[in-house]
Amino acid sequence: MLLLPILIATTISVTSGRSVVPESFKASTKWRYIGCYTDKRPRDLTSYHKLTADRYGMSVSRCYDFCSGYNNLYMALQNGNECRCDNGFGRYGKEEESMCDEPCTKGSGDNGDGDEMCGGDWSNSVYQIRDKAATEITSGMMKLSSADRKLSFTALGDWGREGSHQRRVARRLADWSEQHKSAFTAAIGDNFYETGVYSVKDKKFQTTWKNVYTQKSLQHPWLVIEGNHDYYDGNAANQVKYGKTDSRWVMPSLYYSMHYSVGGQDVHFIFLDTDPIRQEAEYHQYKWFKNELSESKADWIIVMGHHPIASAGSHGKASSTASMYDNIRGELVKHRAALYICGHDHFLQHMVDSSGVVDYIISGSGAKRSTSTYPASLLNLKEKRINSKFLHRDYGFVGFEIEGKVIKVSYIDEDGHEVYSFSKVNPRATGPVIG
Fold it and tell me: Mind listing the pLDDT tens digit for each residue in 121-149?
């Protein structure tokens, strides 16, 4: 069990006449030193959010500047030259302070006295950098309740490629959103091809988003998660940072949740950061996800991520979906989530899990299209007894309407045609939650 220490004044240990705890900690109001903790593989704090010393060196303040961009709770320095960020720590236990006595790597022209420590060999100097995790949407970010009896929203994946198809889908998205009074658009990853955005001032925010989705009905909140292309070149934090400059771009963290109240019902939305999950079954995010589900008293649970649990496309092979299937699918079934919504494969698809509890929705053709299915992926669906109900290899998006105990899911192509739809009764209203 992970036990987080209470953040009170820490006794400063001294090795060879030198304080192991960085001097900068004592005067800082930005971070709070917690202690020295063991690291192993898989890493305690994810390597997905990692900064390595370069010509600028490494320091506590530089690590803080990097990690604060992700809105994470904690940062850790290791081996004098590495910085990692996450919302948890301590899975391998605490170390003696003397194990975190590696001086921070100096940058070029740095004439400092070398008193600042940056962890040790497989030992993390851990700091808290926020009072509270930024993993929940608040009323200050968007309206969280409606007097209406129906909640409508859309999911748009793989939309960040400029061109005529993106604009055609944008117009149809606006039409559907206006007709159904959509509360928000879920932007479910690969928001900016090919390598994300390089800063909060990147012109792609304007050219790929604002200049394309101009219609009045789309000036509502966009709830954003990232895809693999958004992660390229270490740019993942920039979309989180951008949310601090534009209230429509709602992304408090790389993963988060919200509760939306409509018609006397609580709809619990969980937004996952799936790129780390599919690579290394990220420990602290997975722990947070399980806790969100186990503590939820909501009437509905709907989960979104970029990567599929199952798919008929090129990303549906067993080797590609194993971590998502092994770590996420069971929790969805156990807690009777109604839907898992994703993109990544560039088409529209509907599948039903072998349990009959959760339906898998792929909306991955907002601006890219795939015209092929893959035998290995189809075999994976068959082996896992996942029933593919519908597959449409064209541009489009998916719309959702919740009313009472029923959700309607509509697949819309770039010409505005509803090419497929189905309705489903809330599984949390028809059977017990397990565990």
Answer: 999 999 999 999 999 999 999 999 999 99
- Residue 311: how many other CB atoms lie within 10 Å: 32
Beta strands in 5-66 (DSSP E): 14-15, 18-19, 32-38, 50-52
Give the dihedral sign, CA 422/427/428/430. positive
What are the residues whose beta carbons fall under 8 Å from the beta carbon of 19, sequence distance 6 or more? 12, 13, 115, 117
CA dist list (Å): 70 to 49, 234, 244, 254: 8, 12, 11, 7
Name the amino acid, one letter, at 187: A
Query: Distance between CA atoms of 147 and 155, rounded to whole angstroms?
Result: 22
Task: Tell me the chain's radius of gyration from C-alpha atoms.
Answer: 23
Query: What letter does residue 206 receive in the DSSP assignment?
Result: I
Taking Cα atoms as reference points, which of 259, 265, 406, 256 lies closest to residue 338?
Answer: 406
235-278 per-position pLDDT tens digit: 899 999 999 999 999 999 999 999 999 999 999 999 999 999 98
Q: Between the CA atoms of 342, 186, 396 and 355, what dihedral angle is there, to the nearest 10 degrees?
A: 30
Return d(Cα 418, Cα 25) in angstroms, integer: 58
For residue 370 the two structure tokens come to: 């795939």
Helix/strand/coil for 287: helix
Here the tokens at position 64 are 């803080």
The answer to whether residue 233 scores a pLDDT higher than 80 is yes
Residue position matching structure tokens 């509360």: 183
**Mean pLDDT to the nearest integer, 66-73:** 95
Name which of 205, 148, 210 is nearest 181 in CA terms. Answer: 148
d(CA 310, CA 384): 9
Give, for 341, the enclosing helix (H) or strand (E). Answer: strand 339-342
Q: What is the DSSP letter of 189?
A: S
Other beta carbons within 10 angstroms of residue 434's beta carbon come to 10
d(CA 102, CA 30): 22
Contact 347, 395 (CB under 8 A): no
Q: How far does Cα 317 stand from its chain's mean position?
A: 22
pTM of this prediction exceeds 0.85: yes
Nearest partner of 75 among 121, 99, 96, 44, judged by Cα: 44
CB 294 within 8 A of CB 370: no
What is the phi/psi pair of residue 240, to 5°? -65, -45
CB 416 within 8 A of CB 168: no
